[in-house]
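Recap quiz, item 2
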Amino acid sequence: MKAAIITFPGSNCDRDLAVAFEQAGAEVARVWHKDQDLPEGTDIVGVPGGFSYGDYLRCGAIAAQSPIMQAVRKHVEKGGYALGICNGFQILTETGLLPGALMRNAGLKFVCKTVTLKVATSDSDFTRGWNAGDEASIPVAHHDGNYTIDAEGLQRLKDEDRVAFTYTEDVNGAMEGIAGVLSANRRVLGMMPHPERAADAALGGTDGSVLFRSLSGALALA
Amino acid sequence: MTDPVITPELVAAHGLKPDEYERILEIIGREPTFTELGIFSAMWNEHCSYKSSKKWLRTLHTTGPQVICGPGENAGVVDIGDGQAVIFKMESHNHPSYIEPHQGAATGVGGILRDVFTMGARPIAAMDALSFGLPSHPKTAHLVKGVVEGIGGYGNAFGVPNVGGEVRFHASYNGNCLVNAFAAGLADADKIFYSAASGVGMPVVYLGAKTGRDGVGGATMASAEFDDTIEDKRPTVQVGDPFTEKRLLEACLELMASDSVISIQDMGAAGLTCSAVEMGDKGGLGIKLTLDHVPQREAQMTAYEMMLSESQERMLMVLKPEKEAVARAIFVKWDLDFAIVGETIPEDRFLIIHGNEVKADLPLSKLSSSAPEYDRPWVETPAPVALAPVPAIDPIDALKALIGSPNYAAKTWVYEQYDTQVMADTVRAPGLGAGVVRVHGTPKALAFTSDVTPRYVKANPYEGGKQAVAEAWRNLTAVGATPLAATDNLNFGNPEKPEIMGQFVGAIKGIGEACRALDFPIVSGNVSLYNETDGKGILPTPTIGAVGLLASLDDLIAGRPAEGDIALLIGSTKGHLGQSALLSEAFGREDGDAPHVDLALERKNGDFVRANRKLIKAASDLADGGLALAAFEMAEGAGTGVTLDSSDIGQLFGEDQARYLVACAPDAAERLLVAARAVGVAASLVGRFGGTEVRLGTSAAPIATLSALYRSAFAKAVA
């Protein structure tokens, strides 16, 4: 598995995501936001958490216009994989690679804590290591994680089984507790919780590593 | 634009006393220009010159084999083995935070982070010690919300985990809150960057954000008492931009790795003035600046404004001339300003040119070395009044009084607004005791804590100062870490009052004594004086931030007590209730003496805990609130109940020092008691963990009820 992790100005989980991919056996390349192309042979693009461009204007909006995101779009259109976590999820919705939007938390405050997620589908290369209905303890840390989508879009996500994770408690006001969604071809995942922060026993939890191991299993021969 | 005429009123408005102005005239032999007056006021105010505190700070214990660099640089540097160093400091941003809580606190965090990365370290942990007025005071809720949002907004975006701190409420902070921000970073011990310039004709480079008019005169403001004109001071508070800070961090670390930097200094209080003088003075060189080259955010800025601006996210650097292209490319990459604004010169001059005019021409070395230094008169704090009889109280009611108060309730409301896990190395997040962060890519970890009990310091500055250090040392020990070194953030009232100066002197003596006895040097720090409003001073609050080392995560004591675990007390309890949390929260009283600290015993008991960490499942230091509060917190955190056998209020809530509560499996408890007897450490069985109740002697309540109170009281108080 070859992973390319993007660094935008203001990204601050880029290293963490790279480490989690490496621990799952990936060959990791670090990519700069001004780059025009992804490295040859990239299987999956990691769009990390943080505050790209300071989250000024609107979370993810400026990053969505950066040169590298054009390359990511092409990669996805060719069937390539992408994982956006937290700010990365916001960037993927702003880019239009995932539906919906992340609004300010209903409580209006930044929220950082470990939450229990329900795995809503195991039908993706990200979630295959779980069974649908399994629970996973994974930290969140965001100010804008309140997932919102129009009624038609929501129905479509449900009909196509594209909700990847839901919260088991009200964390940020997200519609139907949605914590992560998949693209139509199930190869792009955006999620607010940080699986890369729950991928090391020394830090108190390894539930997040299931995701990286699932990916590595699926992409090992890709 | 013509500069104002220098009048006695203008001199006074710059916070300079008439005799200080006389000294300026003596040094330069003429009347200063307006810009020069501004430069002197910036360099000679209390905040930058430490003129009231220097004499006493010199008495602190600041050395040891682990110390690579003690006080005097941007932050202290301490060896953690394997060629690595931890770099840390704590600094106050009290006055700005009271005036504009969000930006005041945010820029406090930004400033301390810069102090750390200007030395070449990547910040890996932050903490914040906050003191507010009573929750019932009309300003408090607004201040708490703003300060916490400001800290979170800056630190979260920058991307440094917040792993600890304190929050307290007391009437003495009603008109003067305290925001003490701590940051620690990691660097290779042979790649530390210092501020002393070297070499003549070397380019002086300006890095980072542009200079605006924000914060002009901020350092002078921070050295004055508050009165009802405070709202007029809002324009002196700076505005923070964590996005620029994050880019500045990455650009600086990249630059430092490129072998281009001779010396570097962040622009903090009094911005360009302080940083340039610092670099020149330490290097024994002069500095010439041409302000026309300074990147400016606003048009028509004067030399005076540029020299005193406290715009954030800026650095000054002396560059190896042959590296200009390399350095500039790094800053262009990160979209930051990079401008050569001056050069080092051989003569002792601080020469400021703007629009082809000389705006200031001063003997540089005199700006800091000739700054006034005062031996302020002080009086010994009178012996505390004896403790009046303590009324009878049911132990559970006493516990409820504590955990239902925002002072001792869970601080979840605060730290859930901070990113505590970014960088994915947080081993122990805030909540209970010291925070622990792994040293990236190694099995090592660092523990962080910040402590002080201001009530103690007021009653007995000497013992209170000792206690703050001892508690920090104990907190590090309780997670299994070896205490390394500390930073002190000394918040006091007006030093021109002999009784306040007496508190300062007493506390410093106590801190010095404890640091010597525990081999726990102070390696950096900050003094914040004039924390008074309308003549009323705060509780003396010398916050101690401290760092400990775990050579391996295997040494960590972080587990939770389980059903059936034995509760052992290490140390002995006489039942000291003077100045206790119980007295204050249950009876609204602050009388009696502070508990005295036996430093030899402190060391003996702490060393015992560390030596026997393999037998210990969970540990907590005992501080304010005593055994009962520690046992409750430990049980609550683990979702279990606890029984303490005693129902004696002194045994349960006494605040005797040098004590730990530890939880052990029954067989390990047996072995620990034997080990304690063998080395003459007092240890006793005081109860058991398990069940669904908290039982204190004969009185009990369901843990669920107490937990609900403990988890809701803070939010309720500040809502």
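The first strand of chain B starts at residue 67 and ends at 69.
Chain B has a mean pLDDT of 95.
End of item.
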